[in-house]
Each structure stands twice: as C-alpha cells, then as structure tokens.
C-alpha cells in the first residue's frame, strides 16, 4: 500500500529534486493552478499514457488531484503498472505552498 505524504515532506522532496509531482486532474483544472513542475497525467489516461509521461517506474512520484479521491485511484493504477515509489499527496486544495497557473484565487 502506498504511503500518504504531507505537504511539508513533499515540498522538501520537490525542492531538492528527489521527487516529481504528478497531477491526475483534467487539463482545464491543471491550467487553473498546479504545483510548479508537476506533470499532467489525467486519471482517465493513466493506463494508456503512464509510460510516456512517467518513463521511470522507479522514480519517486508524488500523485495529487483536487481533493484526494482521484490521486488514490491513480496510485492504485500506477502500482498495477509496476511503479515502485509512489506517494499519495492527496488534494491540491490542502497545498499551502506556491501554485502556478491561470487561477484568480479559486479552484
């Protein structure tokens, strides 16, 4: 079972380059606001596009969505595809750090 990760632990890993965030929301949600440097892999495309978007199955990937429901589903799918180092970051709504995108203070 994949571990949950706190925002504080996640930001340290992201800032040090030891992990990459993976946003499993839809492209329009990603455009509104996402964690800087996050790769977009919508939940509905995980099975078909994971190898293309996340080529290293042994890298540390921090998976998130809006509230945490889709990230948990995506983590299960990625594990089934052979990904070995995943963390469920939950929802961006609880992310207290910098967000980049076209948002105007709302999600």
UniProtKB/TrEMBL annotation:
<dbReference type="InterPro" id="IPR001763">
    <property type="entry name" value="Rhodanese-like_dom"/>
</dbReference>
<feature type="domain" description="Rhodanese">
    <location>
        <begin position="15"/>
        <end position="101"/>
    </location>
</feature>
<dbReference type="InterPro" id="IPR001307">
    <property type="entry name" value="Thiosulphate_STrfase_CS"/>
</dbReference>
<protein>
    <submittedName>
        <fullName>Rhodanese-like domain-containing protein</fullName>
    </submittedName>
</protein>
<dbReference type="Pfam" id="PF00581">
    <property type="entry name" value="Rhodanese"/>
</dbReference>
<dbReference type="GO" id="GO:0004792">
    <property type="term" value="F:thiosulfate-cyanide sulfurtransferase activity"/>
</dbReference>
<dbReference type="InterPro" id="IPR050229">
    <property type="entry name" value="GlpE_sulfurtransferase"/>
</dbReference>
<dbReference type="InterPro" id="IPR036873">
    <property type="entry name" value="Rhodanese-like_dom_sf"/>
</dbReference>
């Amino acid at each position: 079972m994949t571990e949950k990760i706190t925002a504080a632990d996640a930001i340290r890993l992201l800032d040090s380059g030891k992990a990459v965030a993976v946003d499993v929301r839809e492209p329009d949600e990603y455009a509104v606001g996402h964690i800087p440097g996050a790769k977009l892999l919508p939940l509905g495309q995980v099975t078909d596009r994971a190898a293309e978007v996340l080529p290293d199955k042994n890298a540390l990937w921090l998976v998130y969505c809006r509230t945490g429901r889709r990230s948990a589903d995506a983590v299960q799918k990625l594990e089934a595809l052979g990904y070995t180092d995943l963390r469920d970051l939950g929802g961006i709504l609880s992310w207290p750090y910098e967000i980049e995108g076209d948002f105007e203070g709302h999600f």
